[in-house]
Amino acid sequence: MLKKISCMLLIAILAIAIVACDDAGTPEGQIQNGDSPQSDVVLSYIIDRDTDLTGLVAVMEAFTAETGIRFEQELRPGGAEGETFLQVRFATGEASDFIWFNSGSMVQLLDPTNNLADLTGQPFLDRLQSSFLETVTFDGRVVGIPGRTSMGGGWLYNIAVYEELGLEIPTTWDELVANNEIILASGRTPVIASYRDSWTAQLLLLADFHNLQIQVPNFAEQYSINQAHFATTPAALRGFERLADIFERGFINADHMAVTHDMALEMLVSGEGVHYPMLTFALDSIYATFGEEAANNIGIFAQPADSAEHTGLTVWMPDGWFANQNSPNLEYVMQFFDFFLSEQGQAVLISVARGVGPSVVIGAPAADNAFTAVRQMQERYFDTGRNAPALEFITPVTGPNLPQICVAVGTGTMTPLEGAQEYDNDVRNQALQLELPGWD
User: Fold this and answer.
1) pLDDT tens digits, residue range 14-33?
2) Less Cβ around it within 10 Å: N or C end of the chain?
3) CA–CA separation, 26 vs 24, rounded Å?
4) Please, are residues 193 and 276 in contact by the beta-carbon 8 Å criterion?
């Protein structure tokens, strides 16, 4: 125990030495309410140094102008190093007033019951969609709010080609197969596979989770405690079967092992390839490389289930803000959270950060310059409630080898059942390593 404590203190000292604390989040001259009794209040926050601060800082500037409350920013490393940094800060009582962190199961790394403020009962939570609240609720306590818009996981498609071929948006797998047959006959690639970047191979499977959850509502709960598995749950196995199906039908590009993610986006934009199972963060990449018109020619539809009534969008929930329950400024943090989720705060956010998915704030409008795909997600899947968080947001149980397994299934090297079994074994090994409950 003494060895662990010494190690933690050493990490803390090193972290403090290498991570600079500054006022980067608070540009000079932003205090316009100097007579406010709150103008002496300074709220500190820690944020991943790789996070785009544009919209976040704009909301802080508006809040300072309104209240006089200022902000002090501290940057932390990303990844596991950053997670350890935050754990040490909480353990030593040196955490900031609030922090930026992932929503979903990763919040458990921060021991939310003992470290994060309980937001339950705060009026501003009424503005949030239940699908997001599910990902920041632990032991019956809501501990976070969203800091930006969501991200969709589904099938990106070339709108112009769809119009040229007279195709309708598929709501079942059979309808998607029929569309792919027409696309193939036109001389184009129906489904782009970019397996040189193996992480992209798993998107088709991951995007299928909404359809699985609709059919097996308690799958994530049972999966987390070793009571449900991909290989023995038909609705879960179906994702692997769909991955194999597009290969067996000849729908993917012949050079699938040589194509990268960037090459796939170029194929999609040009219309050489018509579908690409992917997350909507790709919209920003398309916009940056090919321009506004190209980005708005890309649409999205949810991974089709076997039945239209099961089809819905799997959503990657946004990172967000979490308050330190031991902060002496908790009252002011709650005031900021309320402002951030207000109509005024959200208007400021979208005015400078249009996002790659719909907001999880109820009634928050899309940006005036929102991408076509974002508006489609809003209308088809958010306004209708046909969406659910991705599996990784509601369970800590994952396997590190899923990309490689999906490549094997997606190229015929493994059968769907073999891939599912391999992934179940991968998950089991990871759960045992993490000493998760129910795995022995």
Assistant:
1) 444 334 444 444 433 333 44
2) N
3) 5
4) no
